[in-house]
Design brief:
Strand order of the largest sheet of chain A: 9-8-23-22-21-10-20-19-11-18-14-15
Distance between the termini of chain B: 30 Å
Order of helices and strands of chain B: EEEEHHEEEHHHHH
Strand content of chain B: 15-25%
CATH class of the largest domain in chain A: Alpha Beta
Radius of gyration of chain A: 29 Å
Oligomer: heterodimer
CATH architecture of the largest domain in chain A: 3-Layer(aba) Sandwich
Number of strands of chain B: 7
Structural class of chain B: alpha+beta
Helix content of chain B: 25-40%
Largest sheet of chain A: 12 strands, mixed
Shape of chain A: elongated
Bound molecules: adenosine-5'-triphosphate, magnesium ion
Chain lengths: 554, 205
C-alpha cells in the first residue's frame, strides 16, 4: 500500500452519518471539486472512498454572506474575514472502505500484523471528525477499479477532474447482463464499440451484435463531426464476421462475410405470437396457430399454411379451418397478415446454407458476429430475426452447458448478445414472449448474457433491468428513465442528480453491482489512438477454421 | 527592566483591572490602548501586563471659575494642568502576567497592592508578551465591561504591529486579525465593529 501518494488535502470531515453521507469543510477553492468527484478520506487505519454528491456555499453567519463587507472594510481585512466566515461544504457519499497498514519504513510497519485484509468493502463505519479529505489519485482509482493494464480489465474512460484511467472488469461484465443507456447522441453506440472491441480483443467472450443501424461491422460516419470511424471488422478482422440480413445485401457498399436468410421452417408459432402488435393479430391467433401445428407439424406449418388458397374448396384455408375446427374467418385473416412475413426477401423456403448454424458455429469457436440488418430496419424485421436466432442460440448453449456439466464436454464459449434498441424486445409485453428476458434472467448459468443498449430504459421490463449488473448511463432527461437506470441501487437520490447533470456527450455514470462503486467518468475516445493502444501488443494470429483452440486458452 | 520612571501608582485594584493615579510630573500621559506593566513584589515576584482602557480627567474645585474667566494667562493654564488637586486617573485592564516561568495570558494570581508603581512597556516587552501563546489575552479585552473593545483593538493592534515588525515578526498582525475573526464569528455586530475600527486604524499586513 502506498501511502505516500496522497494528493493534497482539500478539506476535512465535519460531520455526517451513514444514512445521509458525510459533510466536509472545503479548505480549497470551491472549484477544486465537482459533483461526482472521487475522494478519499483517511482515518484510523482505514481509507474511505466516496463520491462528492453536493456542494454548498455556507457562512458561519448568513449575514457574512449577505453583506458585501469587503467594500466597507477594504480588500485586505475583507479577504481575511471571508476566508474564515465564508466556506464551501461538500457532501460525500461514502461507498467503500479499506483497511490500511502503517507506512512502510515506520516502527509500526515492522510490528504490524500482515494479516490485515486490504480488500475494499462497503462502508460500515465512518471516518473521524476532521479526517482529511483528498481527491483520489491514480493509485486509488486502480486500487478500486483495477489496473487497466491487466488482461481482464478494460479502460472505459477517465475520472473527470484528474483524468485517471478507470477500468471495468471484463470478467464481471460478461458474467452478468449489462446495460448502456443515455438519451440520443450521448455516445451509447461509440461506447458500445469501445467495450465490444475490448471484449473481443481480450478474448473474454464471443459477441453477437444485432446491428440494427449498421454501425458496428464496417464502422460509421459521425453525423456530428463527419469523421468516419472504423468498425470492429476493420480492426479485428480475424475475430469478427459480418453477416448481413438478406441475400446479396451490401453494407455501405461493402460485402459482408456471409448472408443470413431464414427458412420458413425456422419460424415457430411463438415467433408469430410475439408479433401480435406488429401484425395486429387477434386474440384467436394462438388457437389457430396451435391447430396449424397439429395439422402440419412444427417445421412445416408455416409453409403449408401459406400455401393454402383463399376462398372455398379443396386446398383452401376455409376447408382446412373446418377440418381443424377453427374459425375460418380468423384463419383467413391470419394468413393475410402473415403475408407480411413471407414477403420478406430473407424468408425463403430453402436456404443454400444453414446460416443460423454457421453463426452459432462461429460464436461457439469464439469468433464474434455482427449481424447487420441492412435495409431491413423495421421493427418487424428486428423482432422476428433476433428472436428466431436467439432461440436457437439459447438452445445450443443450454445443450453445450449440460454436456459440459454432465459428460465432461468442452466448456461453452461465453457469449454476449448486444442489443441496440433493446426496449423493442424487452418491454413489458414482449419480455414474456421473447427469448431475451430469459437470457437476462437465467442464461448466465449457460454462459450467455445480454448487453442491452437503449435510449429509453424506462420501457424495459423492470425484471430485466434488475438483472443488469453493470449499468453505464449517459445523460438522461426523463425522470422515468433515470428512475429505471437507478432501480434497485442504493444512494438513488444522490445519483439521480448526478445523472441529470452529466455532460450531454461522452460522459457516463458507471453503476450497478458490476462496478465497485458508482462513478461518473469521461468516456474514452473511440478513435485511432484507441485502436493503437488496444492493438499495440498484438501478435499476428493465424486463424485456422475448425481449430478454435487459440481462443480462450485457460 | 524598569529603566524608566514609573508614571503613576495604583489607587485601587481587583482581579481584572486597576485604577492608577497619573503623576503629573511625567511628560506625557500613557496613551489610550497602550501597554503597561506593574512589577509586584511579594512571596512570589511577578509582573502584571495591562492595557490602558480609560483616561479620566476630572475637575477640581477651581476649574469652573477658571474656565469661565475672560482671559487665561499661560502660567495659570500650565499650573492648573500640572499641579492638580484631583489627579488624572487611568484604568488599566490586566492582560496577563509574567513570572519566573515566563509569560502567561492568565490573569495575575493577586491584584497589585495600592501605591504599587506602574511603568510603560517598551517595544520589546510589547513584542514579547503579545507573541506569546496564541492571543489568549484577547479574551480579557473582549470580556472587559465598559471598555470600547473596537477602539482598543484598533489601537492595540496598530501599536503592537509596529513592535512586532521591529522584531521581524510580520505575520503577527494578520494572525491577530484572523484570531479576532475566529473569536467573534458568532457575533456579527461585534466583529464588524472591530474590523471597521481596524480599517480606520489603517493597519498594514
Ligand atoms: N467515445 C466517443 N469517442 C468519440 N466520439 C464520440 C464518443 N462518444 C460520442 N461521440 C460523438 O457523439 C456522437 C453521438 O454518439 P453515438 O452515436 O454513440 O450516440 P448514441 O447514444 O448511440 O445515440 P442514438 O441513441 O441516437 O443512437 C458521435 O457521432 C460522436 O461524434
Ligand atoms: Mg446509437
Amino acid at each position: 500500500m502506498n501511502g505516500n501518494m496522497n494528493g493534497q488535502t482539500i478539506g476535512y470531515v465535519t460531520g455526517g452519518s451513514l444514512k445521509e453521507g458525510l459533510l466536509a469543510r472545503l479548505t480549497a477553492a470551491p472549484d477544486a471539486v465537482q459533483e461526482g468527484g472521487f475522494v478519499v478520506i483517511e482515518s484510523g487505519g482505514r481509507r474511505f472512498y466516496g463520491l462528492v454528491t453536493n456542494l454548498r456555499l455556507d457562512a458561519s453567519d448568513p449575514r457574512f454572506a449577505e453583506n458585501r463587507n469587503e467594500q466597507r472594510l477594504g480588500p485586505r481585512i475583507g479577504r481575511l474575514l471571508h476566508q474564515q466566515t465564508l466556506f464551501t461544504e461538500i457532501e460525500i457519499l461514502p461507498v467503500l472502505m479499506q483497511r490500511v497498514g502503517p507506512e512502510p519504513g515506520t516502527a509500526e510497519f515492522d510490528r504490524h500484523d500482515n494479516a490485515i485484509d486490504p480488500t475494499p468493502v462497503p462502508v460500515k463505519t465512518l471516518p473521524a471528525h476532521h479526517a482529511p479529505v483528498r481527491p483520489a489519485n491514480a493509485f486509488d482509482v486502480s486500487e478500486i477499479f483495477g489496473d487497466p493494464q491487466e488482461k481482464t480489465k478494460f479502460a472505459i474512460g477517465s475520472t473527470r477532474e484528474q483524468n485517471h484511467p478507470v477500468a471495468i472488469d471484463l470478467d464481471k461484465f460478461v458474467q452478468r447482463s449489462s446495460g448502456i443507456f443515455g438519451a440520443t447522441g450521448t455516445g451509447k453506440s461509440y461506447l458500445t464499440r469501445l467495450i465490444l472491441a475490448g471484449l473481443i480483443h481480450s478474448r473474454q467472450a464471443a459477441v453477437l451484435v444485432f446491428d440494427m443501424h449498421n454501425e458496428y461491422g464496417f464502422g460509421d460516419t459521425s453525423p456530428d463531426t463527419n469523421i468516419r470511424v472504423p468498425g470492429l471488422k476493420d480492426k479485428l478482422s480475424d475475430r469478427v464476421k459480418v453477416c448481413a440480413l438478406g441475400r446479396g445485401t451490401t453494407i455501405d457498399g461493402r460485402t459482408p462475410d456471409f448472408d443470413l436468410v431464414l427458412e420458413q421452417r425456422d419460424i415457430l408459432p411463438e415467433d408469430i405470437e410475439m408479433l401480435t402488435h406488429e401484425l395486429n393479430l387477434r386474440d384467436t391467433t394462438p388457437n389457430t396457430l396451435a391447430a396449424l401445428v397439429r395439422s402440419f407439424g412444427p417445421a412445416n406449418w408455416f409453409k403449408n399454411f401459406m400455401q393454402l388458397k383463399s376462398g372455398e374448396g379443396e386446398g383452401s384455408v376455409t376447408e382446412w379451418a373446418e377440418k381443424a375446427n377453427v374459425h375460418a374467418g380468423a384463419a383467413e385473416s391470419l394468413q393475410n397478415k402473415l403475408r407480411r412475413v413471407i414477403d420478406r426477401a430473407y424468408v425463403v423456403e430453402k436456404a443454400p446454407a444453414n446460416c443460423i448454424r454457421d453463426i452459432i458455429g462461429y460464436l461457439k469457436s469464439g469468433v464474434s458476429v455482427v449481424l447487420s440488418f441492412g435495409k431491413y430496419d423495421s421493427d418487424l424485421d428486428y423482432l422476428l430475426v433476433t428472436n428466431i436466432l436467439t432461440r436457437q442460440i439459447r438452445a445450443a448453449w443450454e445443450q453445450q452447458t449440460n454436456a459440459f456439466h454432465g459428460s465432461g464436454g468442452a466448456k461453452p464459449t461465453p457469449l454476449v448478445i448486444a442489443l441496440e434498441e433493446a426496449h423493442k424486445l424487452l418491454n413489458r409485453e414482449m419480455a414474456a414472449q421473447t427469448a431475451f428476458s430469459r437470457i437476462a434472467r437465467e442464461m448466465r448459468k449457460y454462459f450467455v448474457t445480454l448487453l442491452v443498449i437503449d435510449q429509453r430504459p424506462s420501457q424495459i421490463y423492470d425484471e430485466v433491468m434488475s438483472q443488469l449488473g453493470t449499468r453505464i448511463s449517459g445523460w438522461l432527461g426523463d425522470d422515468a428513465d433515470i428512475a429505471a437506470v437507478l432501480s434497485g441501487l442504493s444512494g438513488r437520490d444522490t445519483l439521480r442528480g448526478m445523472l441529470s447533470r452529466l455532460q450531454p456527450k461522452e460522459e457516463v455514470l458507471l453503476l450497478g453491482y458490476g462496478v465497485p462503486m458508482p462513478l461518473p467518468v469521461r468516456s474514452r475516445r473511440y478513435d485511432d489512438q484507441f485502436w493503437k493502444e488496444l492493438l499495440k501488443n498484438e501478435r499476428p494470429v493465424h486463424f485456422e477454421k475448425g481449430k478454435p483452440d487459440w481462443l480462450f486458452e485457460e | 527592566m524598569n529603566s524608566e520612571n514609573p508614571f503613576g501608582r495604583i489607587i485601587s485594584a481587583n482581579s481584572r483591572e486597576c485604577v492608577v493615579a497619573y503623576r503629573t510630573s511625567e511628560q506625557e500621559i500613557p496613551r489610550f490602548g497602550s501597554m503597561v506593566h506593574i512589577p509586584v513584589q511579594g512571596a512570589q515576584d511577578f509582573e502584571i501586563y495591562g492595557l490602558v482602557t480609560d483616561i479620566q480627567i476630572e475637575e477640581d474645585g477651581f476649574l469652573r471659575q477658571l474656565a469661565t474667566a475672560d482671559t487665561l494667562p499661560a502660567e495659570v493654564l500650565a499650573d492648573n494642568r500640572v499641579n492638580r488637586n484631583v489627579p488624572i486617573v487611568l484604568r488599566i485592564l490586566f492582560l496577563g502576567c509574567r513570572d519566573e516561568n515566563g509569560d502567561s495570558h492568565l490573569l495575575p494570581p493577586t491584584p497589585p497592592l495600592t501605591l504599587t508603581a506602574i511603568f510603560r512597556c517598551n517595544s520589546s516587552e510589547i513584542a514579547h508578551f503579545t507573541a506569546h501563546g496564541n492571543f489568549g489575552y484577547f479574551r480579557h479585552i473582549l470580556n472587559a465591561v465598559n471598555a470600547p473593545a473596537a477602539e482598543l483593538f484598533a489601537v492595540h493592534i496598530r501599536l503592537t504591529s509596529i513592535a512586532q515588525n521591529a522584531k521581524h515578526n510580520e505575520g503577527w498582525t494578520r494572525a491577530a486579525v484572523e484570531e479576532l475573526i475566529t473569536l467573534l464569528q458568532d457575533d456579527y455586530a461585534g466583529l464588524t465593529a472591530i474590523l471597521g475600527a481596524l480599517g480606520d486604524a489603517d493597519i498594514s499586513f
